[in-house]
Prior knowledge:
Oligomer: single chain
CATH topology of the largest domain: Jelly Rolls
Amino acid sequence: MSAVTAEVVVPCFDLDAEARFFLELGFTLERLQPADDPSLAWLSRHGLRLRLERGAAVAPPTLRLAGDGPRSLTAPGGTRVEVAPPVPDLVVPPLASSFVLQRVSDADAWGVGRAGMRYRDLIPDRQGGRFIASHIAVADGPVPDAVHYHLVRFQLIFCVAGRVRVVYQDQGPPFWLEPGDCVLQAPAIRHRVLEAQGGLEVLELGCPAVHATCFDPELELPTPDLRPERDFGGQRFTRHVAREAGWAPSWRAGYEARDAGLGAASGGRVELAVLHGTGTADGWDRHDGELLFGFVLAGVVTLEREGAAPERLATHDAFVVPAGLSHALRAPDDLELLEVRVPALHAV
């Protein structure tokens, strides 16, 4: 038996019966003692080590094992064993589309999240759990972050104010994201947030709303190789620098757009653009995608939609317009609007 680094103590009264129970579940007997009247036995399965101890003065634990299930079993000594299929790395819930309007002026808009960061939930109903969008404010200084990655369908970060220093796997040395810049964080790419300056505010949007964050303490960033075209789950990391981008006509009449180029990099899963009003918008629009999300970066805009009174949106207000809903954005030419679009029924 290899050196013990961690084990779960399983109390029992009949060591033989307890051992047989776990052997039938696929555990392997590693050791028992003493030979003439065994009172201790060690068994293992897939990295889990059990210490069966006759007469141990501890409460029976609950163990969860991957396997055919779900089913529940109870060992002779009282230990509860729950057997269930392994949880998939990525679960994307069905879309429950709805109209959403979130105002920055709401009294309870901000809450405190991890590491003291302030969060605004911009899609409270999460569209059935399919999407999450957060407006995040981070205090100046070093950020207590570790190398990690996310199990997602897609995820993007857009810098609203201030700036943040970040580093990504195989993408070269650390760099600063500044207002208008954004990145597509391809699935499972390792990264780390290093430092915030100037009253940092970012917008983070991803799918699904609930997803796993995994840590990789063995990897040091930056990595030695520069591999900008590396494939991460059918996507590649993309960094958009606003000051280097130009304007082009938007899909919305009366607007021009600065496209971030996320469509091709994400394999068509998500698109992001900053829209600028030209003062000539007078038509009605609709979309047929999974998501149309808007966030007012500067200026004001009036959102009109069929069957409802017009809504005036100010800086940092956000909205979601469901597919098929006719709507219009009436704005002066000083409007800047962040728009995220997710095409319809794209494969995960």
